[in-house]
Amino acid sequence: MIASKNAQKPSKSPQEVPPVTDEEYYKTNVKFKTEHVKILEEVFSVNRYLSAERVNQLAKDFYCEPTKLRNWFSHRRQAVKADPQTPPDEILTKIYESDNSFMEYGNKELLEKTKWSEEKVNDIFIGNWFTQRRLQNGPLKETVIEPVLESLFLKQQFLGKQEENELEKTTGISWFIMHPWFKKKRQEVIRQHLGGSIANLPTEMMMLKAHYRQSDTFDLALRRKIAAEMDFHDEDVTDFFSELTTAYQEFMEEQENEEDVEEMADAQDPEQEEMQDSQDHVESDIPYSRNEVADNQQGQDEAEEMEYDEENGALPDWEYLNAHYSQNAPNVLELEVQNVPEFVAEETVSSPSTSNDSVTEEGSQEADQDVEILGILPQPIVVAPRIKVEDQGPAPPERIVYELQDRLLEFQNEEHAPGPIPLRRVKTTMAEIIKIDMCGLLRGTHDTGFVCKEQLQEYKVYDPVTREPLVLPFNGSADLSSWSRCQVQEFLGQILLSNTAQSVVSKYLEKFELLTFEAKTVQFFEELNSLFSHRNQGIKWSEYEKISREVGKVRRVQLKRN
């Protein structure tokens, strides 16, 4: 019975698990199935970038999300890039073997040869595949590159869009080598031109410089327009404008540094000569040595009297300072080669007497009221001749501060001298300023400065009698073509940031460019004429703030238009 019962029991066999569908698998698993990975590897070997249609088709076949497929291909491409042992694609190798000068950024040609997507072509461009391959097989030496690029630079100074492929094919030099070399070469040529070793810039650089001068603003649209007209890259046009601006600024800084060194040397020479003379007199045994030492001491005392205020420095000679004023002023005696400006014409002057005639007290008092000149920047003390008044007359009226340009001598008569040009400050009378047509319909002269609150505080110009701050003259000239670059910068500094104002002024290389700026500020000058009705063009700070507010309104309107 027992045996029969055991025989009747069915034997237990393992239950078969039904297969999991792809749809259910990818709901709970992140990784692809092994068979799917093999399929994806085959697809990746043919094309690393999938089109949208191909992605949707694979997503339907695998029952997964399209995003999952895109992520797999993206990680796979990154792995290939990170692996240095990954062999290059056969298609690129065939292109390289047939034409080893082929450039990877010739996207249209690469698209035609490979039939790849634009995304993949851009990936090849970023990796510099062809350039790296050329460098591995046989790097070009600089000794071979330099003469080829030098001769090429004589013909063209920029690598135009249409010339990239041809240049690389004809020269065998990669664009990644040519482009930085051309940029550095242009910088050297600009500096040589400013230094005087090169008279004229090459043709293409001269054409771009003309665009630079004619335009007062260089926004993106304008740069693209210039680049399209000349068939250049936008980056090359931008780089050239920045190189030109930087070169001008560095050139001016070098000129200022050289001028400071020369002034310091000139200031030290008289002291060294005087010390040497006194030492020679002491060592000599001439009977009249005591008298000579006394004369030297007297001359030293006179020299100390000639020096101006050490806090403000002194001015160079009249000829250097007043090159912009008429040299035909009436009743002015010539001091050798020096000329006295018109605004001191009434105070007739003459050269200091070299005779031994004694000077009266009245004469010395008259001499103490000579024209005093203060420099904006601290400079070494320069001994200047004392100017004495011949005709005795009433004491001169109270003097105020007057500003005029301080150009380098080599740029005195040059219209497009590099700027900005600093101003120097001269004390003179209000009556003399009126004589040079400072009042009236805002005509003014280009030698006047701008009212600035910081200037009133920094320079501390006071009335010698009342000790009250004096009012600086305001340049109300509506003719911007007569303004100096320094004055344009001071004007823009009232309505723009200082760095922005300096950047704008650095582009004003020609006088006619200021006329372009004038046309954009007609509304401002109309407001200025209505507000400005002060005698002698003297303006107080509170009144200037009112004008500044009007300037701000005009500026905001212009920004909206632009």
From TrEMBL:
InterPro entries: HD, Homeodomain-like_sf. GO terms for cellular component: nucleus. Residues 25-84 bind DNA. Residues 1-20, 253-310, 345-368 are annotated as: Disordered. Residues 23-83 form the Homeobox domain. Its main location: nucleus. Signal peptide: none annotated. This is Protein CBG22342. Keywords: DNA-binding, Homeobox, Nucleus. Residues 1-14, 348-358 have a biased composition (Polar residues). It holds the Pfam family Homeodomain. GO terms for molecular function: DNA binding. Residues 253-277, 301-310, 359-368 have a biased composition (Acidic residues). It comes from Caenorhabditis briggsae.
